[in-house]
Specification:
Radius of gyration: 21 Å
Low-confidence stretches: 11-20
Mean pLDDT: 90
Distance between the termini: 63 Å
Strand content: under 5%
């Protein structure tokens, strides 16, 4: 009897250690996925508190001035997207979310926040619209936020700027043999271009413009030239001739799927499917995404630190690709990991992931409220 009792206790203990942590960590996932107002609005309030306080470069410590500046820009940009998506999902809060979204966009337009791009190019992106310089790291991401605001508010005070940047991007893409624009001089990243292509798709929808043929040309170029032929993952970086200089990787593929959804739901779905097939692992029910499919390459600013090949960035970004593709299973498993390591907490009506910081929380808001396929029209 003692042996049987001991064996039963051991089995029950093993089952609990296997099942319960994932169950507990994953409990809020379905509420986020199915757009329960309570958690989404609480996280939006937390992000709103952060942007009201101001996002400073001194809060980031990547070891490189350029990347610290990029992260300030990225915080405001992804916060704007998340707040706009929450406004669409919960119309009774639209006025509140739009005010915060406008605060973010106003910050994106300051010299301070766009300095990362100005320093890299030696020229200001907004004062160089008549040139053929790329500036896609700034203009593409900014234009996506502008387009979302305009979709929510047809009388957006940013509409003229949205038009000007969009026409600049169209002109530069027409002149590009590779159908890519440079992030920085002689540096080409397909994921940044997907943000710009998403912005073009969103602008066409918001203004009811007929740009389907031109948009399809850009989407087809990504599909045919910049996906790894073996895995279907998005190539991380190419040279000025469009030739790969890096592999197809998880971080770019997951984030690219979120951006692609605004222009081509079909491409977004293929990117998520490739990521799930070749990179996703779920030890003990905790979803994780590898950065590389075939071998363990180096971690960098895009992937974050790699643990046994698993990428922090790719894992988190795939929350967005899962929502876009309608993949509840993947969303739940990855949320368990985000919950376990992000340490969510609440204060009053606001919520935040303690270990996320301003950028991490802005990303989580945008990715966990990403529109599903067919819903990008908001």
């Amino acid at each position: 009897m003692r042996l049987r009792s001991f064996t039963l206790a051991a089995v029950l203990g093993a089952v609990c250690s296997w099942v319960l942590p994932a169950r507990v960590a994953g409990a809020p996932a379905s509420a986020y996925y199915f757009d329960d107002a309570a958690p989404q609005l609480a996280l939006a309030r937390g992000v709103g508190d952060s942007v009201r306080q101001g996002v400073a470069q001194a809060g980031f410590h990547t070891g490189a001035d350029l990347f610290d500046q990029e992260w300030v820009f990225g915080t405001y940009m992804m916060a704007a997207m998340g707040l706009g998506q929450v406004a669409a999902l919960h119309p009774r809060t639209r006025a509140e979310q739009l005010l915060l979204m406008e605060l973010c966009i106003d910050e994106l337009l300051t010299d301070r926040v766009r300095r990362f791009d100005t320093d890299a190019w030696g020229a200001d992106a907004l004062q160089s619209l008549a040139t053929q310089q790329g500036h896609v790291a700034y203009l593409g991401y900014l234009d996506l936020a502008l387009g979302l605001h305009r979709q929510l508010d047809p009388d957006s005070r940013f509409r003229d700027l949205n038009d000007a940047i969009t026409e600049t991007l169209w002109r530069r893409y027409r002149a590009s043999r590779t159908k890519l624009l440079a992030t920085y001089p002689n540096q080409y990243f397909p994921v940044d271009n997907l943000a710009a292509i998403g912005a073009l798709g969103l602008h066409a929808r918001a203004t009811r413009s007929d740009r389907d043929v031109q948009l399809k040309e850009l989407v087809d170029a990504v599909d045919q030239r910049y996906l790894d032929p073996t895995t279907g993952l998005l190539i991380q970086r190419v040279d000025r001739h469009g030739r790969p200089v890096d592999a197809g990787r998880g971080s770019g593929t997951a984030l690219g799927a979120y951006f692609a959804a605004w222009a081509s739901p079909a491409l977004a779905a293929r990117l998520h499917a490739a990521l799930k097939q070749h990179l996703t692992r779920s030890p003990l029910g905790f979803g994780m995404v590898r950065e590389y499919a075939h071998e363990d390459g180096p971690g960098d600013i895009d992937s974050g630190p790699l643990l046994l090949g698993m990428s922090i960035s790719a894992t988190g970004f795939s929350l967005g690709s899962a929502r876009v593709a309608g993949d509840l299973e993947h969303f739940e498993s990855v949320y368990r990991t985000a919950h376990l390591f992000g340490a969510p907490t609440s204060r009053g009506a606001s919520a935040a992931f303690v270990n996320g910081g301003p950028l991490g929380n802005a990303l989580m808001l945008a990715l966990m409220t990403a529109p599903r396929l067919g819903e990008v029209g908001l």
